Amino acid sequence: MTDAAFSAQSGSPLAELPVDGQELASLIAAKLCHDFISPSGAIMSGLDLLSDPTAQDMRDDAMGLIADSAKKMVALVQFCRVAFGAATTAERFTGAELTGLVDNVVAGGRATLAWNLGDGDFGKPQARALVNLAYLTVGALPMGGAATVAVRREGAQLVIEGVAEGARARLKAEAATGLAGQRLTEGLAGQWIQPYWLWLTADQAGGTLTVEAVEGRVSMTARMPS
């Protein structure tokens, strides 16, 4: 893996490559549909089994499939309300609330996730950055490894750092493009939109996002007003 480091911040040339609001909305909607189709499709498969008179011996399996898929669907919806949406009327979030959202979505994966958030709560932009950064940190470990997300306060700044360490830790090219605040010119938009959304969240809050990727290690650091 080629060593790489890059950053993007407000006022930089990268910030002059905006994505149209309508295009941004359509890409986020497409990602949500992609994420939701698997558990919702599994629920339908389980219901089909339950209604099939020739498959009654698989009733317990069907009920297990429906229950597991429904839990996954609920976890995704709850996560996305904070990661991409307005999160209803909540203005502040505790660390326990945010870690629970991410833990429920990444449960069952190959990577472990450890948290060190300290005390205090988080406003909407900081919460949005935190859950997206944590999710992408775990996503940098497709073959397993250890992910750590930590938060510290430096004066008026909130620093959110995610570190992924593992033998195959890596960023896909589309993810690196998005994290740098650059428009995607080739590759899969579904792999680009969430990293770009993280960069945009930090940028619009008046913060910065720094990413470093070396052999076996990926780190992402968002600095935002606290």
Characterization of the model:
By secondary structure, the protein is α+β, with helices and mostly antiparallel strands. 47% of the residues lie in helices and 23% in strands. It contains six helices and eight strands; from the N terminus they run βααβαββαββααββ. A six-stranded mixed sheet has the order 1-7-8-6-5-3, with helices on one face. A two-stranded antiparallel ribbon has the order 2-4. A hairpin with a 2-residue loop joins β5 (145-154) and β6. The longest helix is centred in the N-terminal third of the chain and has 31 residues, at 21-51. It is globular. 32% of the residues are buried. Mean pLDDT is 90; it is low at 9-15.
Number of helices: 6
| Spans where pLDDT lies below 50 across 5 or more residues | 9-15
Largest β sheet strand count, sense and barrel closure: 6 strands, mixed
Report the portion of residues in β strands.
15-25%
Distance between the termini: 35 Å
> What class do helices, strands and sheet pairing give?
alpha+beta
User: What gyration radius follows from the Cα positions, in whole Å?
Assistant: 19 Å
Residues in helix, %: 40-55%
Order of helices and strands: EHHEHEEHEEHHEE
Q: Trace the largest sheet across and list its strands.
A: 1-7-8-6-5-3
User: What is the count of β-strands?
Assistant: 8
Q: Look at the structure and give the mean pLDDT.
A: 90
Shape: globular
